[in-house]
Amino acid sequence: MATSMCRLVVVAVWFADSLTRSTGKNTYTREGWDVQSYPHDIPSDAEDIIIIKTSISVVDYVEEFPQLARYQLSINKVSEFPNLGNVSSTITDLMVTSTWISALPVDWMTTMTKLRHIDISHNRLTSIPDLTVVFPALSSLSAYANAITRVDRTTAVKMYLKENQLTEVPDLSNVKDGFLKLDMKNNKMAAIPDRALPPMPGCYYLDFGQNGLTVFPNLDNVTGLTYLSLSSNQLVSVPNLPRMLHLADFSLSDNNLDQFPNLSNVSRSLTHLEIHDNDISTFPDRLVVVLANLESLTIGRRSGDPIHLPGFCSMDIPGTLTVTVHKSDLVCDRNALFAKWRQRTGKLVLKSSDNASPPCHSPPHLSGRRFEEITIEDMLLQEPAFSYILDDGNPSNKPVETVSKGLADRGEGWDVQSYPHDIPSDAEDIIIIKTSISVVDYVEEFPQLARYQLSINKVSEFPNLDNVSSTITDLMVTSTWISALPVDWMTTMTKLRHIDISHNRLTSIPDLTVVFPALSSLSAYANAITRVDRTTAVKMYLKENQLTEVPDLSNVKDGFLKLDMKNNKMAAIPDRALPPMPECYYLDFGQNGLTAFPNLDNVTGLTYLSLSSNQLVSVPNLPRMLHLADFSLSDNNLDQFPNLSNVSRSLTHLEIHDNDISTFPDRLVVVLANLESLTIGRRSGDPIHLPGFCSMDIPGTLTVTVHKSDLVCDRNALFAKWRQRTGKLVLKSSDNASPPCHSPPHLSGRRFEEITIEDMLLQEP
């Protein structure tokens, strides 16, 4: 078992109502507010001194502690920085927060050559001097919630400076190449000059929210961003963004925008977009096509006036999109009709900001009714658009006959046993779901037909779409008995962008480079496919098939984006299978029986990688991947925690449960400093040690989920309890309960949530 380097030797915090003294070696605790003078009886071998919520007003000096690495003084009435000159050469983590301190003593601080992380938040500082000389090894600087008006140079690659009085970006010239993260939310910047952001290819996080910006900043030098917030400013327009392959989270909420911005240069990566509290009333028809990977979207007008939903007519929504509407009621028009259909198929969650269903504003017969309560039949009582929808959703058990300018809805699904030939000729969308149709011999001419869906039907041959093949852009034929594609007439489908042929009986997919030259996405999961030939599709969803190798990607390698091959039959992935694909951001090879880790040198732009549920016994050193945020290695045969240093700067979600890893690196939360969620737990169910939480550089909240295993409530668990108290850690079991302790004996069987720090100090942890 690895021994933790986090040795907590003195804690003076807000414990119980009475004084507690521990019999543990070199460890004692004191009641917080009763402590009025600095304790000078701390054991000399202390590695960590943490003093919180006391009445101490003066710290004149700190004795020599040759092993002291971490020092914290928080929520105290001191007005001068503690004199750490005697221990300055060993300290790596320093936290002096929530005090009355107004200046840094740079004289003796120049000897703090090992300091990596400093947190001086919630004080009364007005400036931060040049730290390049003072702290040459500094990695992160946290100084939010002061009254700072100036920050000079620093070596820190992460800066948390929100809630200050800054009017300009700090000088980043000294750290520009390796700079990672800048949080300047809630300051006083009216503009950001171009020179303020030098070339920073590794920078992944910028927050300039709540600053009063009137002009959009130039982002040409930070194209590696994964997170960007410009919320709560005074922006009236958004220029064309530079090409950003990895931007996933983008907030433009609470500005003065009246037009939806052009996001085509970030469309491939964007998953979360906030654009509410502007005055945007309508959205592009093909929004969910352009932003095809969007998972959440928040909309709503600042004025509270009604809003039109985006168009949901594309069939290329592989996952579920959550749309949250702030303040506004809905215009329940054609787009709302498609939203209702998407909602029925499980591809859309539509809610208000209070998690209720948003109300309709218009048309009059729907005004005031919640969207959730309205049926497609209700919406068809007034002309919403040019569509033909036939499904079994009519709850009345009676046919609905409504025809209006190209839209028709014909009754109960399973009662329909023959293909309807009375569809209006100007239909743009034909959607036929859950009928008893077994044959579709031909489809008439529809000069405007763009989208065709035939799903959950008993047809065994592909519908003959020859008459409409030249106009169709989206084709979905799913959950049928079809076993082959008719490539003869399909060669005329020159405009087809998205095809979904999932849940059928297909065994192979022919060369589609000639058949569908414009194809962008191919969804063919849950068939019995053993071979996929070439295709132009840059996104392929092929999970739940019988594939033994990766499809030929040579035709699309440069622009390839997404490959989902979960639950197939691949024992290995040869190096040649993944050609150079710099834009590829998503790979899922889970549930394949892989015994060797694939070579990822050609896909270093990934943001998501899953290798879960395989037979991997080790993980080699990964290539340098600046944007990998989600990584799953769960359910393999690993017994050692992998070296993740090359993805440490970007990783936010890591799943490594259901292996046989029992211990974790001491400095895990330092190396993976941006981790937001971690799942651990041994496949055998044997007890597990928690990672070390002794670093003070955890700016956000880390959620640790424990699967199957009980905890060894040792020294790492003690630090976890402290982190939990400060709001920096959520620790839970997979059932959302608090995990139980396995050992030491006096804690065995007790839930971690119920145990106090005093309980843990009763035995040497």
UniProtKB/TrEMBL annotation:
<keyword id="KW-0433">Leucine-rich repeat</keyword>
<dbReference type="GO" id="GO:0005886">
    <property type="term" value="C:plasma membrane"/>
</dbReference>
<keyword id="KW-0732">Signal</keyword>
<dbReference type="InterPro" id="IPR003591">
    <property type="entry name" value="Leu-rich_rpt_typical-subtyp"/>
</dbReference>
<dbReference type="InterPro" id="IPR032675">
    <property type="entry name" value="LRR_dom_sf"/>
</dbReference>
<dbReference type="InterPro" id="IPR001611">
    <property type="entry name" value="Leu-rich_rpt"/>
</dbReference>
<protein>
    <submittedName>
        <fullName>Uncharacterized protein</fullName>
    </submittedName>
</protein>
<keyword id="KW-0677">Repeat</keyword>
<dbReference type="Pfam" id="PF00560">
    <property type="entry name" value="LRR_1"/>
</dbReference>
<feature type="signal peptide">
    <location>
        <begin position="1"/>
        <end position="24"/>
    </location>
</feature>
<dbReference type="InterPro" id="IPR050541">
    <property type="entry name" value="LRR_TM_domain-containing"/>
</dbReference>
